[in-house]
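Reminder to self: tokens first, then the designed residues, so the page reads top to bottom the way the pipeline ran.
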């Protein structure tokens, strides 16, 4: 069944949709968006009536690492730091998955019609975050005359210095910049004061960060107030960094047409690391324990995901099954679920191309995350940045934590079986 996504985008307007909203509590209609926030473990700062002004202290430029969701986690860390240091954060495009970046280059030069990045405002609602925090787009800065040269680069670990390449791809340079290292940063008051003084004289400061400002930002951040200012501001940012209207509309259309607005479970199946995908594509390898151990850090995921999915569907009386996974293993996943009597539903690249005019695994994942946000129950894969981001967003929308869990018993050394909540 094809989605009439382009038609829906023309017809539907969501100027006030979803932003700052929550999913109803377990006692109400789970999975249905509410027009009011449900109770959170923290109080979200109120939305300003208009965009917040630039800060006088200067700017922070996020220098982000690895895949799209790792970048999003790092971005939220820099946004949290910007709030604490009272600096304006420069928001820029999100780099596509490295496979897409390689496909978009020939001899180091971009291929016509291929994109290295996803525009920030295609993925996220810039106007919404700008009413909660002082931010500015990179384009606005260039249009205003900024030459794209950083005065200083703040970093926390030498092995991450190579990530400055991602700033260079975005036409931002560290030429002549002073490098400032904080090897032991736990966001204490004294450390924050020292960091602020160290960068005080620099107007444009690049920040190379991934799980350096907030522990576990990409995978297992604590979803409750801890008293650590960076961590707690990170939770606030999570509530305010919402997906764009277009992504929200795509997800809403998918729920309506493919899931028929019925109750559903969303699962994220992530063989880890990437070489583990070989096992999923070759059924004979599943019985080779040596190969499983060699290629996978979660080798038993392939043996447990169907049973645990069906258990939660039966327990919650859910009718639909939405699956997030690499396109290359979707046929295998479909075969395994169908053998158990259930039909998985995927968001396809064909549907995305119909809506936005091109194919992109990176953008596909962003829409999938929004679909997973609206699920009655979400089951993710441990140590996955995608699962981590979805869990954070579900928490920020006030979804009962017991309906956001992870597949358990996925390694060879396991504790007794129990649905594992995502921390």
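Designed residues (423 positions):
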């Amino acid at each position: 069944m094809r989605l009439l996504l382009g038609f829906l985008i023309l017809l539907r307007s969501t100027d006030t949709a979803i932003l700052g909203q929550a999913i109803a509590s377990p006692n109400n209609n789970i999975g249905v968006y509410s027009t009011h926030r449900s109770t959170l473990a923290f109080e979200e700062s109120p939305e300003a009536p208009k965009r917040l002004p630039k800060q006088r202290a200067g700017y922070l430029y996020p220098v982000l690492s690895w895949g799209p969701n790792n970048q999003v986690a790092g971005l939220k860390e820099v946004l949290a730091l910007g709030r604490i240091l009272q600096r304006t954060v420069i928001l820029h495009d999100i780099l596509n998955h490295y496979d897409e970046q390689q496909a978009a280059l020939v001899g180091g030069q971009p291929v016509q019609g291929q994109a290295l990045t996803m525009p920030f405002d295609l993925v996220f609602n810039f106007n919404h975050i700008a009413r909660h925090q002082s931010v500015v787009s990179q384009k606005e800065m260039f249009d205003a005359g900024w030459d794209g040269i950083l005065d200083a680069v703040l970093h926390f670990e030498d092995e991450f210095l190579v990530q400055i390449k991602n700033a260079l791809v975005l036409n931002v340079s560290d030429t002549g910049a002073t490098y400032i290292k904080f090897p032991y940063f736990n966001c204490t008051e004294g450390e924050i004061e020292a960091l602020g003084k160290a960068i005080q004289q620099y107007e444009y400061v690049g920040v190379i960060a991934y799980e350096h400002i907030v522990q576990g930002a990409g995978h297992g951040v604590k979803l409750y107030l801890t008293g650590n200012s960076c961590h707690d501001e990170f939770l606030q940012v999570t509530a305010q960094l919402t997906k764009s209207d277009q992504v929200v509309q795509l997800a809403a259309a998918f729920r309506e047409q493919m899931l028929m607005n019925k109750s559903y479970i969303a699962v994220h199946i992530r063989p880890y690391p990437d070489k583990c995908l070989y096992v999923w594509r070759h059924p004979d390898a599943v019985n080779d324990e040596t190969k499983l151990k060699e290629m996978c850090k979660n080798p038993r995921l392939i043996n447990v995901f169907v049973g645990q999915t069906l258990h939660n569907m039966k327990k919650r009386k859910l009718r639909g099954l939405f699956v997030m996974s690499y396109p290359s293993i979707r046929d295998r996943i479909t075969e395994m679920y169908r053998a158990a009597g259930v039909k998985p539903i995927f968001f396809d690249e064909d549907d995305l191309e119909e809506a936005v005019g091109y194919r992109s695994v990176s953008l596909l994942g962003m829409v999938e995350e929004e679909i997973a946000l609206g699920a009655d129950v979400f089951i993710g894969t441990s140590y996955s940045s995608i699962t981590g981001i979805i869990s954070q967003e579900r928490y920020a929308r006030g979804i009962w934590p017991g309906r956001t869990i992870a597949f358990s018993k996925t390694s060879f050394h396991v504790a007794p079986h129990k649905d594992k909540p995502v921390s």
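The chain has a mean pLDDT of 85.
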